[in-house]
């Protein structure tokens, strides 16, 4: 009876393990199975496989790379990225905005414009509204961390000012952004 | 067999009592119709007029040029087969007096257009007088015609007015040739596009630029009753709705709210502008009365509400909202009450624009990574997709509601190059898709009403 139960549990654990492996990204599967192989080989596979590369730069479809990212101040990134049609701030975005807020609290004479942007895969007018929504999501977070609202202006560009002119998911992920720019 | 049926149909029409000037008629509700063979004879010009017009306009043969304007307009409808002028057997002057119908029937022409251009001096100023006649070759009679006098520089418009008359006579629908298109001219790399307001005749001629490109401008729209335009300008980095008189060049802000105003469109009587106001992360639809300057909020929802467009009777507004989670099309009464979702198909829907006839709403749809321009009835039924591409949006109706103009963008290559934005038009039937030529890249087209006199 007991043995039966243990077997049953073990069975569930195996199933659970399978699900976890299946859900994990292609990259992590490879890393776990290829831990014994040499680093050079791992590097080779990474170069050869564009999907692999994409996984490193996007989480879900939010850009997590450093290309195009500038600085509001030394060590303070100027932008955060969004998922398609979304205005939710990711953990990484919140960390960036907390750094911005901390710097703005120390430099209380600085005012900023938060520019909201969308990718090219949406109608112009809707994207203007979406850009405004993204910029306000960033503004609200800065306000939560002690920056007063009269120091932050928002400006939506919709899809009018892409930073990457590509027509592919990676380019689009870099363009879905809000950028904090010094206004004075 | 098909031809015989058509002939029989024409025969019945001609014999039909009660209508004095009947003629071959085209059913433009069908897309795949055999185009009607039509001859546009060069308009006759006497030697003295020729010389004077050459001095005025530097055009050698204005009569020929006017006939080309008409020919080009008619051919582009897809409804007419304009016959080669080289095959014409009769000279323009004689044809205009009284055509030898057998000669035109011989080259299989069913309809003939002839005309005459004369230069005139009124109060010591040069004018041109243009006469035109429309002939039914099979019925062997003249069925329509007019003459008008105007300043020489207006000659292309005369060609458009004649085209409108012919189109009306042969299809039973009002024409759309004496119209203009306002659009956004685009130049430069994709990441730094320079955009200007531009206006041109419907056939791509007489392009004029209305702004210099110093600030970003978007979404110009005509007032259906006059030559006013409303658009979005980023002047001083404050995106606001502006009103521009394209004749005087005078402009003023109409959407000066705290927050961004965008997506403007006139009411059918031209006295109001509906637009979106985005503030604190929420976009709502507002209406501003241009006579009283009173503005009123029409929607009240934490979602994005934008791209509003009036029904032609002014009683309803269709708009775009993501209150269901994704962009869908809604209609409401023009006071903001009775909001109802009408799009329920697969995909997301945007940019609803009410047809000038009132029965259809044109839209942009995104489904499985492709963009479509389509139409649906005002209750959301009868969805019909007219064209599919990598990216296209912003449908605008011809004033007679038979054609939709929109813009299309190309996919860039691996290096991010090869981007272009162009205007395209397509018939409501889904046939006759055509590139609309513009001097530069172009987007956000808006079609004017028929111009007055």
Span of the ends, CA to CA of chain B: 44 Å
Using the CA coordinates, give the radius of gyration of chain A.
21 Å
> How many helix segments of chain A?
7
Number of strands of chain A: 8
Mean pLDDT of chain A: 81
Structural class of chain A: alpha+beta
Question: What is the straight-line distance between the termini of chain A?
Answer: 75 Å
- Poorly predicted regions of chain B are 1-22
* Oligomeric state of this protein: heterodimer
How would you explain this protein's 3D organization?
The complex is a heterodimer of chains A (184) and B (453). With 184 residues, chain A is α+β, with helices and mostly antiparallel strands. Chain A folds into 2 domains: 2-48; 62-182, 60s Ribosomal Protein L30, Chain: A (2-Layer Sandwich), CATH 3.30.1330.60. Chain A has helices at residues 2-23, 26-33, 39-48, 50-57, 91-106, 124-144, 169-175, and strands spanning 58-59, 62-63, 71-73, 76-77, 79-81, 112-117, 152-158, 177-182. In chain A, the strands form 3 sheets. Chain A has a 4-stranded mixed β-sheet. In chain A, strands 1-2 form a two-stranded antiparallel ribbon. In chain A, strands 3-4 form a two-stranded antiparallel sheet. In chain A, β1 (58-59) and β2 (62-63) form a beta hairpin. The N and C termini of chain A lie far apart (75 Å). With 453 residues, chain B is α+β, with helices and mostly antiparallel strands. Chain B has 2 domains: 2-171, 3-Layer(aba) Sandwich (Rossmann fold), CATH 3.40.50; 180-447, TolB, C-terminal domain (Neuraminidase, 6 Propeller), CATH 2.120.10. Chain B contains 6 helices and 30 strands. In chain B, α3 (62-76) packs across α6. Chain B starts with a helix and ends in a 6-residue tail after the last strand. The model of chain B is unreliable at 1-22 (pLDDT under 50). The chains are: A alpha+beta (184), B alpha+beta (453). The interface between A and B is large, with 31 and 44 residues.
């Amino acid at each position: 009876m007991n043995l039966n139960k243990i077997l049953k549990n073990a069975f569930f654990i195996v199933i659970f393990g399978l699900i976890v492996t299946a859900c994990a990204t292609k990259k992590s599967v490879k890393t776990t199975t290829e831990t014994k192989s040499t680093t050079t080989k791992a590097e080779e596979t990474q170069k050869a496989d564009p999907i692999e590369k994409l996984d490193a730069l996007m989480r879900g479809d939010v850009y997590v790379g450093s290309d195009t990212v500038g600085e509001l101040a030394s060590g303070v990134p100027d932008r955060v990225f969004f998922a398609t049609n979304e205005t939710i701030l990711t953990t990484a975005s919140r960390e960036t905005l907390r750094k911005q807020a901390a710097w703005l609290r120390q430099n209380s004479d600085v005012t900023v414009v938060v520019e909201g942007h969308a990718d090219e895969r949406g109608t112009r007018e809707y994207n203007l509204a979406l850009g405004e929504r993204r910029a306000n999501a960033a503004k609200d977070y800065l306000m939560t961390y002690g920056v007063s609202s009269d120091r932050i202006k928002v400006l939506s560009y919709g899809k009018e000012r892409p930073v990457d002119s590509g027509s592919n998911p990676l380019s689009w992920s870099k363009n879905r952004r809000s950028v904090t720019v010094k206004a004075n | 067999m098909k031809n015989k049926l058509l002939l029989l149909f024409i025969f019945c029409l001609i014999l039909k009592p009660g209508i004095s000037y009947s003629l071959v008629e085209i059913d433009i509700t069908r897309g795949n119709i055999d185009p009607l063979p039509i001859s546009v004879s060069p308009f006759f010009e006497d030697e003295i007029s020729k010389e004077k017009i050459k001095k005025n306009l530097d055009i050698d043969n204005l009569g020929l040029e006017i006939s080309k304007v008409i020919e080009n307009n008619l051919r582009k409808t897809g409804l007419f087969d304009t016959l080669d002028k080289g095959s014409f057997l009769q000279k323009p002057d004689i044809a205009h007096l009284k055509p030898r119908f057998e000669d035109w029937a011989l080259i299989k022409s069913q309809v003939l257009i002839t005309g005459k251009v004369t230069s005139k001096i009124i109060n010591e100023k040069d004018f041109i007088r243009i006469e035109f006649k429309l002939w039914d070759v099979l019925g062997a009679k003249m069925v329509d015609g007019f003459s008008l006098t105007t300043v020489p520089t207006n000659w292309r418009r005369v060609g458009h007015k004649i085209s409108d008359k012919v189109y009306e006579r042969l299809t039973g629908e009002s024409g759309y040739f004496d119209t203009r298109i306002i659009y956004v001219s685009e130049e430069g790399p994709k990441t730094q596009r320079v955009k200007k307001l531009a206006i041109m005749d419907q056939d791509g001629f007489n392009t004029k630029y209305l702004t210099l490109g110093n600030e970003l401008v978007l979404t110009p729209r005509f007032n259906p009753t006059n030559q006013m335009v409303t658009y979005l300008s980023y002047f001083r980095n404050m995106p606001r709705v502006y009103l521009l008189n394209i004749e005087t060049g005078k402009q003023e802000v109409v959407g000066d709210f705290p927050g961004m105003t965008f997506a403007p469109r006139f009411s059918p009587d031209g006295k109001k502008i509906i637009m979106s106001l985005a503030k604190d992360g929420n976009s709502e639809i507002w209406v501003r009365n241009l006579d009283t300057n009173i503005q009123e909020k029409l929607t009240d929802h934490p979602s994005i509400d934008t791209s509003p467009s009036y029904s032609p009777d002014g009683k309803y507004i269709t708009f775009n909202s993501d209150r269901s989670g994704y962009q869908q099309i809604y209609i409401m009464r023009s006071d903001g009450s009775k909001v109802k979702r009408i799009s329920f198909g697969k995909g997301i829907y945007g940019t609803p624009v009410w047809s000038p006839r009132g029965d259809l709403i044109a839209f942009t749809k995104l489904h499985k990574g492709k963009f479509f321009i389509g139409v649906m009835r005002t209750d959301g039924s009868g969805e019909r997709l007219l064209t599919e591409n990598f990216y296209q949006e912003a449908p605008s109706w011809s004033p007679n509601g038979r054609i939709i103009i929109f813009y299309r963008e190309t996919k860039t290559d691996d290096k991010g190059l090869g981007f272009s934005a162009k205007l395209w038009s397509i018939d409501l039937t889904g046939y006759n898709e055509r590139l609309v030529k513009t001097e530069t890249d172009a987007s956000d087209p808006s079609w004017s009403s028929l111009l007055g006199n």
